[in-house]
Amino acid sequence: MKRFILLFFIIFVGVQAQADDPPLSPAVAYWKALTIEEKEMFLFSYLVQVYETDTQLKTEVGYGGVSKWYYDNRAELAYGIFDKLESIDLKQFVKWIDEYYSHGEFANKPFYEALEFAYRFQQASGETLWEKYENLKYGKIKPGNQ
User: Fold this and answer.
1) pTM
2) Between 7 and 111, where is the model more confident?
3) Residue 25 phi, psi (nearest 5)
4) Structural domain boundaries of the chain?
5) Cα–Cα dist 122/92, whole Å
6) How far is CA 69 from CA 22, 60, 63, 75, 137, in A?
7) Radius of gyration of the chain (CA)
8) 3-state SS record for the chain
């Protein structure tokens, strides 16, 4: 009887722990399954897709409305990252995206939010996550020595 109660308790605690964890989005599950090289390829492909979508939107509907929203909320960040690729390796962005998704509360966040986090933290001065966080307070970025 004691074994049955112990087994029931272990199963109950395990189910509770899983119930408290936020669900993992399919995009995050896919990202976590990739190797570093595959993540770099995924990231570059994502950036190219955003660029091509922005270009096509501007061609088909002009700049305004949905194309302006897309540029302001997706493409501008991709262009900023493209500008940095001559001086920064994609592995740096991958590292910060991995850091973002390593925290359970971000497990269901969209990829562009992880990319925005990576861009901001990659640019901030400081060596540790805490130093970078301190330098990013109030939305201000202190550029690092690059």
Assistant:
1) 0.70
2) 111
3) -70, 155
4) 24-139
5) 7
6) 30, 15, 9, 9, 26
7) 20
8) CHHHHHHHHHHHHHHHHHHHCCCCCHHHHHHHHCCHHHHHHHHHHHHHHHHHHHHHHHHHHCCCCHHHHHHHHHHHHHHHHHHHCCCCCHHHHHHHHHHHHCCHHHCCCCHHHHHHHHHHHHHECCCCHHHHHHHHHHHCCCECCC
Judge residue 118's burial from the number of C-beta atoms within 10 Å of its C-beta, 0-12 exposed, 13-18 middle, 19 or more buried.
Answer: buried
pLDDT of residue 14: 47
Distance of CA 146 to the CA centre of its chain: 22
The token pair at 137 is 């307070």
* Residue 39 confidence (pLDDT): 95
Tokens of 19: 């119930």
Report yes or no: 81 and 114 within 8 Å, Cβ to Cβ: no
For residue range 47-90, what is the model confidence (pLDDT) as tens digits? 999 999 999 999 999 888 898 999 999 999 999 888 888 888 88
